[in-house]
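[Q] Does anyone have a clean structure-token version of this?
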Amino acid sequence: MKMRKDDLTGEGLIPMQRIQRSILLLRRERVILDRDLAELYGVENRALKQAVKRNPDRFPSDFMFELNETEVAFLVSQSVIPSKRELGGAAPYAFTEQGVAMLSSVLRSSQAVQVLFSVQN
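[A] Here you go.
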């Protein structure tokens, strides 16, 4: 399948469909899960979570939240995420658009900035 220029975000680094597939509606918020952001940013999920834990004041509840058991069970049942056991027992984090922006500033990489521009479009 040939990609068109319109199918790409920014300078053509991240396919728009990849961003759109990552966006979920949870708690009436459009969010992206930590594992998807880690993949988009090109970092390990544990490194992403570590950056969040080192900067808790930058991530209030309207920027990011941890999924509860009901949300995890629903996403597992829909094959959106693997089981919590496969995730190492930790519940995923969900980031709002503001959380994605803050995460981009915390990670400070050119790829993080590209993701930010892609999500905001």
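[Q] Thanks! Anything notable?
[A] The chain is about 45% helix and 15% strand.
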